[in-house]
Amino acid sequence: MSGAPLSVVVAGGSRLVRSVLRSSLLESAAGLAAVEVAEDPEEVVARCAAGAQVVVAGTTIAGVPLAEVMPLALASSARVLVVCNRASAGLVPELLLRGASGYLVLEECRAQELWTAVQDAAAGGATLHPGIATLILEQWREARAESRPELTAKETEVLQAMLSGDPVKSIARELGLSARTVDAHRSRIYVKLGVKSHAQAVQRALDLGLLA
Which element (helix H / strand E) includes 131? Predict the structure, then answer.
């Protein structure tokens, strides 16, 4: 898709924004077959069906949320690059999960950067504004922290000892506890981690970063 001249559709945002985006692409792009402007979702879908490879769009198109238009555009094998005035904490993950090939902030996006992002999208890549990448990383970290179960100090100690793969009696001797106490801690660990075996507990703990 990246070798041949690209056909791009600009949609969403105000008429002025669409004009600015179109002009920016025409000024900086040497490998463009066409840059067309679509006024509504139906026109976007028609342009994609006719062979447009990349849709550069705001978060709404003629009042219709981009999230509702994207499946129809993607069904034609077009890529969707989101360009908007600011990063929305709620919209960014949703649009990326729905298949957007990047998210840029209009005021901080130079013409050449826009063209490069369009080329990357056409080639199957993705481009994220640094601030948006940071936002997504922060959300991921928060979600990961919320999903981490709270273990007691003793449960954490037992879990760390389980990393060796030793049986309960060996772990009990290592920690100076009775086998029954270790087994009780292990049972509570299983419940908190949502697992049913020693191996699953260790793997889950590693995935969550609970083990050093």
Answer: helix 130-147
DSSP SS3 for 8: strand
Q: Where are the beta strands (DSSP E) in 69-172?
A: 79-84, 102-105, 127-128
What fold, for 6-143?
Rossmann fold (3.40.50)
Task: Give pLDDT tens digits for 125-147.
Answer: 999 888 888 877 777 777 666 66
Taking a C-beta distance cutoff of 8 angstroms, is the pair 91, 59 a contact?
yes
CA 10 to chain centre: 23
Burial class from Cβ neighbours inside 10 Å (0-12, 13-18, 19+) for residue 66 reads buried
What is the token pair recorded at 101?
A: 């090939």
Which pTM value belongs to this model?
Answer: 0.65
pLDDT at 2: 45
Q: Which CATH number applies to 153-208?
A: 1.10.10.10
- Amino acid 67 reads A
In which residue ranges of the chain is CATH 3.40.50.2300 found?
Answer: 6-143
Rama region for 93: left / alpha / beta (φ>0; ψ in -120 to 50; rest): alpha
